[in-house]
Amino acid sequence: MLALLFSVVVGSWHGTTTSYVLPVAVLVTGLSMLWLARKLPWYVGSPHRPEATAQQEQWAGQLCHNISSPSVTIQGQEITFANQAFLALLHYGGRGDQVVGLPFTNLLHPVDHPRFATLMAIAGTDDATDAEGVLRLVRADGGPVKLHASISPLTLVPGSRLIQFSADAAVAPARDGVENSMSVVLDQLDLVMFKTDAEGRIAYVNRAWERLTGRSMPESRGRMLSAAVHPEDRDSVDKAMLSVAGGQTDHLSMEVRLVNTGGNVFWVMLRAQTCTLPDGDLVGVVGTLSEVTRRRRGEELGSSRRYLNTLLANVPGMVYRGRNDPEWTMEFVSDGSVDLIGYEPWELVENHRVSFGSLVHPEDREFLWAQVQASLAQHKPYQISYRVADVSGNYLWVWEQGRGVFSSQGELLAIEGFITDVSERRGAEEKARRRMWFEARTGMTSRAIFDSLLAWTLHQSQVNDFPFALLWVDVSGLAGRLSPPETGVELIQATGVAGPGAQTQAGSEAIEQALARVARRFRPVNGPGAAVTYMDNYQFAVLLTDFRAGETARALAGSTEVITAVSQLASRLVQELSAPLTVGAEEVPVPVSVGIAIADARYIGAESMFAAARRAATQAAELGPGHCEFADE
């Protein structure tokens, strides 16, 4: 328009004819140039193509539906139709409404977005034969799938394109060639190397896989890597491997358990990362497996040892491991040794300060050795009690339970066991044993039988009104006269017993021997009508039902005669017991005091009669040795 106006103005300057001719010439020239431009190949036409109609889009969808291979049609970037093969491929079967209307790039792996843009640009030209390439789509479960894509424009549907997919097999021969060329080298490694596809199936493993799992290489190819994983770890391995294969995780490092064909479980370190080709194409996952069972066991052993140490520290006794030799050389001793015998573990281990064998009582050493050897010879555990000396030299009774540790060939490697203090129990047992020995040696009645006799006699006396008496004889003053160390030394010289605690033991034995000699002096009251028992603590009890002071029996008319008869018997007894004892070269006097209780209705039981006689003996002792006192008289 500007050219026509300019020609009219210029023509008016040159006359009437020019004012008409010049504008007409400009108009003809412009129309000619416009016609010529439309004929040139670089003409792009109008800037906006017409929109596709609903009928055209329906035709495109029908075309896509009739294609057997996975296919979609797109309008711009938006999916307008997807056939069943495509939906099944991406696990969207029966859910086409979730796909239609989405941007196609939502189903495309992010790594391939630039490649898709390039293919779309090529498909937009007249020559669409080169709009082919490999694309990775993302399935509904997040897993990638690699496919060959062919993008074609639909000329009858403005702005629409048809994308057809097929399996990508073009790169497989090249990859197989690389693997074959490297297999000889990789088979020499002790480290397991593997490659899996995007779904976790084994595509390659080296020879170390066979040595580790017992599964052959041909048998393993195509199987899931997690098939060799312990069932409890399998799910976590599958999820982690899929995360790496899908590009969500760059690398993986975790410790898992494998199970070989023999059923043995062992720990491995699994390391994996994505496998990409030089062009950035993801082809699966590569990784390594290295066994870490020994390290794991070391860590577990350390934890177990800490737990064991805590447990042993609270056990009332000593746990040990040692050698089977006469010294009982210790290789391990728990902290319980301090509470048991006062020695620190290091003092006993390898006999650094003292050997355990030297602490065993000399009288028990041979017995202990014989019992343990007999049990070891039969491969049986042993249980035994014996005496050991503590750090102060005092002996205590211990109870030991142990067993031998043998090799697979039956060779004895060590002995292990537990030792605990049983002095209190053994003390009670020893006291009962010594009482039995004392009663057998002296002919005295046992305490249990004496108590029963007294209770029965008291009852009969109250029912039938016949007299009897209970004497409480106290020679406790003898204890102070036998306690000096010289007495024990003399007995050590006589018996030959020496070592830690020997003097204490010898002193106890001396006192027992002296008491036995005193017990044999109860002859004046030890007959058919009397019973004598030892009450402990240098005290005796005498039950009298026969009051014969001479050789012939006679009836007692009243209580006065009973008192007289009992007094005579008590005096004879005091005289007999008070004779000095010869201990070594020394004469030891025996201080005696006697308390007497006569049967009476006021005594409701044996204990009340015992108490009355004991009080009377205490009163007699206050008066001096050799006195007798009646209860409540």
From TrEMBL:
GO terms for biological process: regulation of DNA-templated transcription. The lineage of its organism: Bacteria, Pseudomonadati, Pseudomonadota, Betaproteobacteria, Nitrosomonadales. Transmembrane segments: none annotated. Residues 178-248, 304-379 form the PAS domain. PROSITE patterns: GGDEF, PAC, PAS. Residues 252-304, 382-434 form the PAC domain. NCBIfam families: sensory_box (TIGR00229). Pfam families: PAS (PF00989), PAS_3 (PF08447), PAS_9 (PF13426). Residues 466-633 form the GGDEF domain. PANTHER family: BIOFILM ARCHITECTURE MAINTENANCE PROTEIN MBAA, DIGUANYLATE CYCLASE DGCP. This is PAS/PAC sensor protein.
